[in-house]
Amino acid sequence: MSFDILLKGGVLPDGTRADIGITGDRIAAIAPGIEAEAGETINVAGNLVSPPFVDPHFHMDATLSYGLPRINASGTLLEGIGLWGELKPLLTHEAVKSRALAYCDWAASMGLLAIRTHVDVCDDRLLAVEALIEVRQEISHYIDLQLVAFPQDGLYRSPKALENTIRALDLGVDVVGGIPHFERTMADGRASVTELCEMAARRGLMVDMHCDETDDPLSRHIEQLAYETQRLGLQGRVAGSHLTSMHSMDNYYVSKLLPLMAEAEVAAIPNPLINITLQGRHDTYPKRRGMTRVPEMLSHGIRVGFGQDCVLDPWYSLGTADMLDVAFMGLHVAQMTSPAAMRRCYDMVTTESAAIMGLEGYGLEVGKRADLVVLDAGDPVEAIRLRATRLLVMARGRVIARLERSPMRLAIPGREGEIDRRFTVPARE
Ligand code: FE2
Asked: How far is the CA of 377 from the centre of ligand 1 (A)?
């Protein structure tokens, strides 16, 4: 047996050590101690070899636009939407595309090889839709980009949003989006959920709505989303993004809501970096955190994937395409500190988000696509703790990014040497 590439001595996310043989764009073998010819043999001994990171919620049409035409002074969601409204008429096809491609370079270097991005369809020119469709094609050999038709200014509240949503889907956008809490009334919000889910059912598409991204405990569009999912037979194909109102909802109501979501197999996509900064802005103290109820959803069997939402745009002034930042923040805000819960946070930026996106060929298994990332960490929890350096990124069997490990040297008298922040935990679970 021979391989194109043989990775030797890596640690898989479940803690087992194994070599991985790659042939063409596929994983051909995973086993300890593979002795075989290979075009290239790469020593990854002791380093975590993981399936790539997956971001199930992003806004690629806005990314890297921070400061254009000004920054968000209040830091609120609503000023961000207003600021985006100022920027939209100034966008050009070329600018959107070049910023998106620049971001995809960052993503590739971070081992982030699948992204679901919402794309605003409220600009009648639909230039961001067209630009991102081109980007989706141009990066398809290393990143899976999924586009969501997103009526940012409201399906009914924005004059042509409904028509533009249909146009965007006709152009080849993959997923139906929505923003029910931003419609003029609760009734309009509810109707928008129904109309958009019916549209998805007719077209055989998935649904991913910005849903209840507010601190208003009475914003309950997730209930309608679960209902329509059940009614239209869309189980397993629908996600509610943000769901921040659930943080503030009445506990008894949530005890009814979570089983409804579980029954309908509606997934949840919290965005911890954004939700911890945008929510609770109208509060004095105590100040709500605004992230949805992640551990409670998990205990009800609801699938949860963490998203990044924004990098350097009208809503968020930081970000590096690092899904480990997202897992780190999510872990803290959700207080998921047990070994098993920390491990789950890693799954939520890899396998769980891949399942939400319905990615085919994803995962470290024989026969799956040879997409992976090697991290300077001994296990997934350590990867989160260190926001570990990416040592190697492989897409479709090709190494697309590589970094030689080069530890910093301490020059403190009597303490000279290489600094290594890795730490062996005797028994993680
Ligand atoms: Fe979003």
From this structure: 30
Q: Which one of the listed residues 86, 183, 213, 382 is annotated catalytic?
A: 213
**CB burial class (10 A; 0-12, 13-18, 19+) of residue 265?**
middle
Cα of 124 to ligand 1 centre, how many Å? 20
Alpha carbon distance 78, 181 (integer Å): 12
Residue 158 pLDDT exceeds 60:
yes
Question: Does pLDDT of 429 surpass 70?
Answer: no
CA angle 370, 366, 56 (to 5 degrees): 50
Q: How far is the CA of 152 from the centre of ligand 1 (A)?
A: 9
213 is catalytic: yes
pLDDT band of residue 177 (cuts 50, 70, 90) is very high
Q: How far, in Å, is the centroid of ligand 1 from the Cα of 176?
A: 14
**Cα 138 to ligand 1 centroid, rounded to whole Å:** 24
pLDDT at 323: 98
For helices 186-203 and 221-231, the axis angle rounded to 10 degrees is 30
Identify the burial level of 253 via C-beta atoms within 10 angstroms of its C-beta, where 0-12 means exposed, 13-18 middle and 19 or more buried: middle
Cβ–Cβ < 8 Å for 38, 5: yes
Neighbours of ion ligand 1 (CB under 5 A): 309
The amino acid occupying position 244 is T
- pTM listed for this prediction: 0.97
Q: Which domains does the chain have, with CATH numbers?
A: 2-51+366-406 (2.30.40.10), 53-357 (3.20.20.140)
pLDDT tens digits for range 344-387: 999 999 999 999 999 999 999 999 999 999 999 999 999 999 99
